[in-house]
Amino acid sequence: MKALVINCSPVRNGATSEIVSIISGELGSRYDTKCICIDDYVFAFCKGCRACHMTAECVMDDASVIKDIMREFDEADIIVSVAPSYWADIPGQYKSFIDRCTPWCNTHEPHASIKPGKKGYAVALRTGPNMPECERLIGSIEHFYGHLEIECVAHLGLTSVENKEDAKARKTEILEFCKCI
Ligand SMILES: Cc1cc2nc3c(=O)[nH]c(=O)nc-3n(C[C@H](O)[C@H](O)[C@H](O)COP(=O)(O)O)c2cc1C
Question: Among 20, 48, 74, 131, fewest CB within 10 Å belongs to which?
Answer without folding.
Answer: 48
